[in-house]
Amino acid sequence: MTDERLAELQRGHLGKSLFAVLWTNNPAVTREQHRAMLPEHLAFLHDLEERGVLFAAGPLRLPDGAPQTHHGMAILRAASLAEAETIMSEEPFTKSGYRTGQLFAWTLNEGSFSVTLRFGAGTYEVL
Hints:
This protein is globular. The protein is α+β, with helices and mostly antiparallel strands. The mean pLDDT is about 90. The protein has helices at about 5-10, 30-50, 80-90, 90-95; strands at about 15-25, 55-60, 65-75, 100-110, 115-120, 125.
């Protein structure tokens, strides 16, 4: 591939800097302990979402669609790696030792999504 062709293909890339966190739950934490802290975790994520910090988050699933109960992912908007680390360290499961997170700088270049709102039906669809 020529440098010109490569430049042509990359010309329209978004180049948005974000941070991806891959979470791994501590296997010693019981289901009851995890469930008890879940409201605090969700409130934390909702707050990040309201402040425009959380781009996306959720549990990972196995290829057959079954829940992957020990892993999750979050994508954060942060000004720096240090800021992303601080956000990650305040997540309740992490703060309590119930999970650890591996942080990656991530550049969003390609992709798309669509949202369809049907006001009369009160439904939405994200593709």
